[in-house]
Amino acid sequence: MAFRDKSGGGVAVPVRRASQARVLRIIGGTWRGRKLRFPASHGLRPTPDRVRETLFNWLGGRVHGSRCLDLFAGSGALGLEALSRGAAHASFVERDVAAARELRARLAEWGAADARVEQADAVTFLSGAASAFDLVFLDPPFDSDLLPRSAALLEHGGWLKPGALIYVEYAARSAAPPLPGAWTALKAKQAGEVGYHLFARAALNASTPHET
């Protein structure tokens, strides 16, 4: 997933030069080591490897066989990482035309068996007909109202299976955004000015990752 331009508040996350931000590497699973190219669009930056590694350590065995939704997908790194680690399906939603085109090309090149890319605004997408997912990656632009809006649509629109896991990023300096009451916080860490969090919908069960 790519971080976007968090305009308006000047979040102090260093912006890499375009030449440094065009290639990512899958860090685990069957595609481990493969390189992922994405457009050097203004404000598109990759989620750091260490954050992705921590996230997928949190998720553990919950990825294999899951249906994943990568909203505000950007580079698509999180959804691709999930597919590499055995996810049964991944849907990518990305508004940027060039980024969506590159994602489609990568999925075709790598022979992804069950994946699709929706070139669309995430809120518009979530307002349509729903299909339930086990795992959602949710990283909208900072300094916007898209996180609570998207979260509410996910919760009330039929997009989440019971016990679904939701990965959320927002500025570490910001107060926690309003999220659905059915979401239970499981994990949280900070990388620079970025806070990243894992939530579970509804009650925990034996297969849900616990806090350590």
Question: How are the elements arranged and paired?
Answer:
Layout: E1 2-3, E2 23-25, E3 35-37, E4 45-46, H1 49-59, E5 67-71, H2 77-84, E6 89-94, H3 97-110, E7 115-119, H4 122-126, E8 133-138, H5 146-156, E9 160-171, E10 183-191, E11 194-201
Parallel strand pairs: 5-6, 5-8, 6-7, 8-9
Antiparallel strand pairs: 1-4, 2-3, 9-11, 10-11
Question: Top keywords for this entry?
Answer:
single chain, about 210 residues, alpha/beta, Rossmann fold, seven-stranded mixed β-sheet, two-stranded antiparallel sheet, 5 helices, about 30% strand, disordered N terminus
Explain how this protein is built.
Helices cover 23% and strands 29% of the residues. Residues 1-21 and 204-208 have low confidence and may be disordered. The chain is α/β, with parallel strands linked by helices. The longest helix is centred in the middle third of the chain and has 14 residues, at 97-110. It has a 7-stranded mixed sheet with strand order 7-6-5-8-9-11-10, with helices on both faces. It has a two-stranded antiparallel ribbon with strand order 1-4. A two-stranded antiparallel ribbon has the order 2-3. The protein has one domain (2-201): Vaccinia Virus protein VP39 (Rossmann fold, 3-Layer(aba) Sandwich), CATH 3.40.50. The chain has helices spanning 49-59, 77-84, 97-110, 122-126, 146-156, and strands spanning 2-3, 23-25, 35-37, 45-46, 67-71, 89-94, 115-119, 133-138, 160-171, 183-191, 194-201. It has 5 helices and 11 strands; from the N terminus they run ββββαβαβαβαβαβββ.
